[in-house]
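My current task is to audit a protein record that another person submitted. Please read both lines and tell me whether the tokens look consistent with the sequence. Do not assume that whoever made the record got everything right. I have pasted the whole thing underneath without changing anything:

===
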Amino acid sequence: MLLAASARAQPSEAAERLASVEALRAARAAPEGTLVGLEHLARVAERHRERTPSPWIGRLDRYLAEAEAGRDPYVTEARGEITVRAYRSALSERLAGYAVYVPPGYDPARRYPLLVALHGGSSNGNLFAALALGARVSFTDYRRYWWTVHAPRLAPEWIVIAPDGFGNSMWRYYGERDALDAIADACARYSVDAERVVLFGLSNGGLGSFNIGTRHAWRFSAVVPLAGAPGWSHYTGGAPSERERRVLEPLSGWSLIENARNTHLHAHHGRTDPGPMRPRYVEELAAHTDVLEVPFTLDWYATGHDLVVPVQRDGRVFDEEAERRRDPSPASVTLVTGDYRAARQHWVEVTRIDDYPSIVAVEARREAARIVVSTRGSLRALRLHEVRAREVVIDGARVPLEGATGAVDLVRGEGGWRVGAPRARGKRPGVSGPLGDALYEPLLHVYGTGGERPHLLREAAERGARGFFENLHDVVQPVVADTDVTDAQLAGAHVVLYGSPRSNTVLARIADRLPIRVAADGVSVGAQRYGGAHVGVRFLYPSPFGAGRYVIVQAAARSEAVAAGHRLPAFLPDWVVYDARRLPARPGNLPTARSRHVAAGFFDDAWRLTPEGSTPR
């Protein structure tokens, strides 16, 4: 045996167990997915050790013993337990953890429904898995129980996972990708019934359930938000500017609710909820879904925000959703999107949008030997999957398919719709903006080493490498000096550049190929100049270093103004010019009235500045 019993999880003891994991890895004695889980469990034991003997270290010892015996502990020892495992995320150098439960009698030969539980801002994956499985913890006590080893009070014949979401990401950008990646990892490790996947969340997790559950509705049999706002426009106060609306709508359940026509949508809300998830928001959503003829179930409770106990006291969601199945290929499909990262529902996919980002919609239905499609908005191209038809009638025009099967691309030109794909240039999937689009992918943070106070640029890069939002956990991305970065590194990731052409040699190399310029006396956006060393800019643009990559520039004449860019709000268009003196001490979701951007805007579909974009806000 490699192991000895342990009384207390000291760092040295956790290190011993990490060494045992590495020994198993070197011997190829266990699947890599299992070893990644054990590695994460060892780090949980080290980072969250208790004054009394830690049950995490004892659990790890049991799991390691199983792995050494050639068995998968996540299938044998972990049955009936709430435990933690992890996967390797592209977004962070640290492992991305999630809590998992499999039933006591788990049999890999069966297919089990999967509950995906999204925690709120005061919780984490470990605690929220326990809450979903019947634990009774007061909302005010959540933080005390984040890393308690919880025993499930319910024993459903379900698999349950609760991603960590990189902390309080509010399930946007980093958090959305983590949720989808954790689902993919669980489906690879366990026997999941792909037609019975339920998305469930409380508070911020309720907001995330509305948003992710409509953006990717075709992946779920049911979406069950608890105490959640139905979209970002509501959560941020209900009155975004037109520019802000263009960023928020493609991420918001309210705008995308028609995608749920083939997914059961069942919300729960407290009548006296006092927070930003106001009861009137879901009342308005109920009226909105009536108008759009989208099935929507809403249950009210005579309580406030803490709804997990009243909803899951007896395992209600498990009982109600156990046999509900999604239709993997419905005859009629509605797709509403303004984001290439959420541009598919079932067999309909949007492949190009003009005036990006803007909301477009597709209604498609199969009729014998043809497919009937109607579109709205500035839709340029789409793809139909699973085609078994002789023709498409799109916006009233007949397009013969000439025996095409499988996937068919349709593009709209001056003469109307025809079979064909759009040109691979300009804004397109993977290189479309806005700024948040880069946060779904690996980022390399490169700081300048020249000029005055270069240590501030290094600190700015290190801050960005921990995520561009507050309250994130375990986002650790690579940071490198401009003098040390290689061309291979620059070509292999989205690159964030900190400094100015005077202080950052990488930025100096490409400055003449970028549409926004930074000089000693200010920032120039096209013909418009914004003067002052306190003026900074953040923008993204197709990378000159590698195809399909972004370069993100956070620049100003002074290093202090570069660092101040981390106080920008979360939701931004393609570019923003800011006054470092007016930014708030802590970033919010949208700029406040006092700290409005100097200017902000979108590039056009060819990545050019628009006339609107070159004028002050």
About this structure: The chain has four domains: 1-77, 97-321, 332-419, 435-614. The mean pLDDT is 93. Residues 97-321 form a domain with the Rossmann fold fold (CATH 3.40.50.1820).
